[in-house]
Amino acid sequence: MADKINYADRLDKLPPYLFASIDRLKDEAVNAGKDVINLGVGDPDLPTQSHIIERLNETSRDPANHQYPSYTGMTDFRKSMAAYYKRTRNIELDPVCEVLTLIGSKEGVGHIPLAFVNPGDTVLIPDPGYPVYGAGTILAGGEPFIMPLMKNNGFIPDLDAISRDTAAKARLMFINYPNNPTAATCDLDFFAKVVAFAKEYNIIVVHDAAYADVTFNGYSAASFLEIPGARDVGIELYSLSKTYNMTGWRIAAALGNAGIIDGLGKVKTNLDSGAFQPIQYAAMTALDSSQDCVEENNRIYSERRDILVEGLRSHGWDVEKPKASFYVWIAIPPGITSSDLTALLINEAAVVTTPGIGFGTYGEGYIRMTLTTSKERLAEAVDRIAKVQI
Ligand SMILES: *Cc1c(COP(=O)(O)O)cnc(C)c1O
């Protein structure tokens, strides 16, 4: 047995985990018996609907579902996914070669660089952004190249700012709207620009649509696949996690370009053995049934959003009201870092938020709060935050 366990270089290359000190402060507050309000977690607090759970219960009793599932996912699940895209977005997909079941979209994000990125290849990733884009890139030996998301651009990457040289070296681009952590949305114009850019430089586009159906007040998020030609260059990742309160179930799909789906499938065939069939059946029930439960979730989030945003604004905070996602991205007062402010809010108000710097360099100057807590608790959080001297 070696004295010291050495990690492979690729693990040492992963960025440091920036939330460790926040986690420690939170644990200290909890252990001290404080009534902690956690606005840090991006995980729905509401339960999965019972009709979805019932389908899991029924199908889990069938021995045929106890065996290895198909690697590409059940044909019926892929058909449900395609029918859902047709019904909700008028996008036609071939369930056989343009849809692939994923064990959550994080799995797809993590695996896709293994299929398409050679050591040293550039991957374009948004900053601030979901940390897995960078981690997946690094684990595949790729080099993340940051696309800053800035307020003056509506938190949308400026493709014109990417040099021809960098674009020529890029193999893959990750984008994500509605966005985590900024809660920004984008329009079809941006997707059209991405398609043109990807065609010019031969870049594979992965649009992470985890919040595509977490939308408010009649807003509906565009799909990347609506752009003519999008299917020549990219895929969209659709997740049931956030829409149906199913984060723990681990079920999502990759949709779009058959060649990209095939490459991702090759990696998966060698590394995992697919999603438990009863979970795919339950997911079919979620997609095929009335979407009233989704509307109800979204109504709840929008009420919470109004309480949090209007409350913070009334105390002088600079906050936009998001049209989608369950995040609120808050510009912080000058003279304090996002980490210091987060620590202050835990220590003085027992309110946990997430420092923007944890999502990348360009997240500095912001903190993120989540709407996965009741209205009453959000109102209480606002009251407590208002009393903190910053
Ligand atoms: C939550 C989240 C995911 C992960 O979704 P799963 O399908 O549960 O793996 C992916 N991308 C973003 C941006 C997220 O916030």
Description:
The protein is α/β, with parallel strands linked by helices. 41% of the residues lie in helices and 14% in strands. The chain has 14 helices and 13 strands. The protein has helices spanning 9-12, 20-31, 50-60, 75-89, 105-116, 132-139, 164-169, 188-201, 230-233, 258-271, 277-288, 292-314, 338-349, 375-386, and strands at 37-38, 99-102, 122-127, 143-148, 170-175, 204-208, 234-239, 252-256, 318-319, 327-331, 351-352, 354-355, 366-370. A 7-stranded mixed beta sheet has the order 2-8-7-6-5-3-4, with helices on both faces. It is globular, with a radius of gyration of 21 Å. The model has no long low-confidence stretch (mean pLDDT 96). Bound molecules: pyridoxal-5'-phosphate.
| Helix content estimate | 40-55%
Report the order of strands and helices.
HHEHHEHEHEHEHEHEEHHHEEHEEEH
Largest sheet: number of strands, sense, barrel closure: 7 strands, mixed
Helices, by number, come to: 14
Strand content: 5-15%
Give the names of the bound compounds: pyridoxal-5'-phosphate
What is the rounded Rg? 21 Å
What is the top-level CATH class of the largest domain? Answer: Alpha Beta
Distance between the termini: 51 Å
Shape: globular
Secondary-structure content class: alpha/beta
Instruction: Provide the low-confidence segments as ranges.
Output: none
CATH homologous group name of the largest domain: Type I PLP-dependent aspartate aminotransferase-like (Major domain)
Spatial sequence of strands, sheet with the most strands: 2-8-7-6-5-3-4
What's the architecture of the largest domain, going by CATH? 3-Layer(aba) Sandwich
Indicate the mean pLDDT.
Answer: 96
Let me know the number of strands.
13
